[in-house]
Structures are given as C-alpha cells and as structure tokens.
Amino acid sequence: EHVVESGGGLVQPGGSLRLSCAASGFTFDHYTVGWFRQAPGKEREGVSCLDNSNGNTYYVDSVKGRFTISSGNDKNTVYLQIDSLKPEDTALYYCNAGPHWGQGTQVTVSS
Fold first, then answer.
1. For residue 68, what are the contacts with CB-CB under 8 A and spacing of at least 6?
2. Dihedral (Cα; 68, 54, 51, 71), 10-degree rounding
3. What are the distances in angstroms from CA 48 to CA 8, 13, 14?
4. Is 68 exposed, middle or buried (0-12, 13-18, 19+ CB in 10 A)?
5. Confidence bin at 83 (pLDDT 50/70/90)
6. Distance between CA 22 and CA 11 in Å, rounded?
7. Predicted pLDDT of residue 53
8. How far apart are CA 50 and CA 68, in angstroms?
C-alpha cells in the first residue's frame, strides 16, 4: 500500500501545474488526503487537504485562491491544481493519506 505523486516540473512564475496523487493497494474512500510541501532548509508544511468522507477542503492561507484540491472520478486519485505559481512555491510536494506518504514530486518555479 502506497501513494505515488506525479506532475511536478519546472515552470515560470505565473504558470500552472496539476499534481496527482494515486493510491495503490488501497482506496482513498475514508481518508483525508493531504498535500504537503518542503522547501530546502524549511520544515514540511501542509498546504491543502480533502476529506473524502464529506468533500470538505482546507487550504493554508498562502495558497488560497491559487491551489485547488479535487478528487478524481475513480476516487483513488487526488489532484492539486496549482495556478499563478510563485518562486516561493518551489518545493518538494508530498501526498499523504493516513500512514501513507509518497516520495514527492518536485515543483520548481523560476524564470
């Protein structure tokens, strides 16, 4: 049982990315799925989460209005749409569901 992140990359400021978190060997049905990020020299921070039991979402203030978390139709994928990217969004982005953490996908915002 694990999760796998994908979708990171190098983008210019103002660009967009869609990160994916896929569950393998289990389902997200009853989990709150969260996206976290860790920039070099900084602590890991939670940026958004989705409670699959009721659809409730949460965003840290610094990403509100720019990040959108959603569930895929198969319920085993959670997406993080990131718009209006800023250099300070550069980080390794991780997905979490209960005890399951992925290896992360790198987002780099640079001109």
1. 80, 81, 83
2. -50
3. 16, 20, 20
4. middle
5. very high
6. 22
7. 86
8. 10
pLDDT in tens, 95-105: 999 999 999 99
Pair of tokens at residue 40 = 């070099």
Look at the block and give the residue holding tokens 């409670």.
51
Q: What is the radius of gyration, based on Cα positions, of the chain?
A: 13
The rounded distance, in Å, linking the Cα atoms of 109 and 101 is 23
Instruction: Give tens-digit pLDDT for 30-79.
Output: 899 999 999 999 999 999 999 988 999 999 999 999 999 999 888 799 99
Between CA 94 and CA 103 the distance in angstroms is: 7
The position carrying tokens 């982005």 is: 93
**Rounded CA separation 35/65 (Å):** 16
With vertex at residue 42, the alpha carbon angle to CA 39 and CA 45, rounded to the nearest 5 degrees, is 75
Torsion over CA of 10, 15, 16 and 19, rounded to 10 degrees? 20
pLDDT computed for residue 88 by the predictor: 95
